[in-house]
Amino acid sequence: MFPSMKAEIAARDGDPRLSLLLGIAAWFLFLDHIPHNAVSVLTLRNFGFSGATDLFVFVGGYTAAILYGKMMLERGFLVTATRIFRRVWQLYAAYVVLFVIYIDLIGYVARKSAAPEIIHEFNVAGILGHTIRTLIYGLLLQAKPLNLDVLQLFIVLMAFFPVVLFGMLRRPNLTAAGSIVLYLAARKFDWNLSSFPDGHWYFNPFSWQLLFVLGAWFALGSAKQMRAIRSLQDLSILRILALLYLLFALIVTVTGNVPQLAGIVPDAVINFFLPNEKENLAPYRVLHFLTLAFLFSFAVPRDWHGFQRPALRPIVKCGEEWLPVFCAGVFLSFAGHFFLITGPNSLAMHFLVSIAGIAIMAGVAYYTSWSRRQDYKPALSTRY
Predict the structure, then answer these.
(1) Which H or E run includes 333?
(2) Range from 28-42, 96-110, 189-203, 343-357 carrying the lowest mean pLDDT
């Protein structure tokens, strides 16, 4: 069993589509995290029920399963668990540095500028009267500054990934079924983690684990499962139904976001699907994302020649270096919002801020990649 599984994992390793999708998710998260950014109308969330966070979590589960699944088959559970926890520590360390500098920067800018309302916009009002308490709860992942919730969610999902991966390699269908049961139970009994000073996590990990686990399930699926999926993709009727669902989601979302289009879709339908339920990951949101993944994997094969185009290289590079790019995007989204509320509020400024932020994120990705390569280059011998 294991030799064949190793071969299947190796065949799915190095898929350039994963880096492309992670890069797209990083760029879209940056654009979405700038409040009232006109350019964010181009992101995924405005064309259907799912968004960049769904993409980030699913692809994160897929890539983690490929990387650590091969390791667990070759080196065992204990070694792999320690490597996963080392990655969790790296993610947590990045979060702590990001959190401390982020809230301090927001507080400093609010005090020094004529825009004190950003304290409340970025959900760090607790630092005004409870600075130490806010820091403590932040270290416990219970403070919820705006734009850090995606990283907090990913830390929790990775912390429990050794158990998930162990189950995926031995009973993948049973493990996936357990994830679905947990998802349904969380929605039924309103399970969630509390946040400071009140409320719950914006992305409920008991619900969002479903996309992460499904990503791992697709990554570690057997050759028989993959053949079954490809046979479904070859059925034109399923592709037509998938396109019709995406079209329905597009119409509902656009109608709900544009008041001038009110009346095209019945109010009962709009009220059922909107506002889009992010906290507990609504079932129609999961279906929308899986539909997108179904059509994308069919339309964009692994050996697609478009990956060689120079225009896609910055996106792919940002996907390869997603963690520093994400951290840079958090600061850049705050800086972009500050520029927009203190400078000229024009469409040209919105485009300038968005393009400049994406360019800086790409620069961070290229620098990080270059810096890592230098660590593995042998030092030149000195001749006297």
Answers:
(1) helix 322-342
(2) 96-110
- 3-state DSSP call for residue 143? strand
Length of the chain, please? 384
What is the CA 107 to chain-centroid distance, rounded?
27
Domain segments of the chain: what residues? 2-370
C-alpha to C-alpha distance for 286 and 184, rounded to whole angstroms: 12
Distance, in Å, from the CA atom of 265 to the CA atom of 234, rounded to the nearest integer, reads 32
Q: What is the mean pLDDT of residues 93-98?
A: 91
B/e letters for 202-215, b = 16+ CB within 10 Å, e = fewer, are bbbbbbbbbbbbbb
Q: Mapping DSSP to helix (H, G, I), strand (E, B) and coil, where does residue 304 land?
A: coil
What gap in Å lies between CA 320 and CA 360, rounded to an integer? 15
- Between CA 340 and CA 356 the distance in angstroms is 13
Q: Could you read off the pLDDT of 109-166 as tens digits, one per residue?
A: 777 765 667 777 777 666 556 677 778 888 888 888 878 999 999 999 999 999 999 9
User: SS3 for 306-331, per residue?
Assistant: HHHCHHHHHHHHHHHCHHHHHHHHHH
Q: Looking at the whole model, is its pTM more than 0.90?
A: yes
Count how many Cα atoms sit within 13 Å of the Cα of residue 336 in the half-sphere of its side chain.
30
Q: Hunting for tokens 């500098």 — which residue is that?
A: 101
Instruction: Assign 175 to helix, strand or coil.
Output: helix
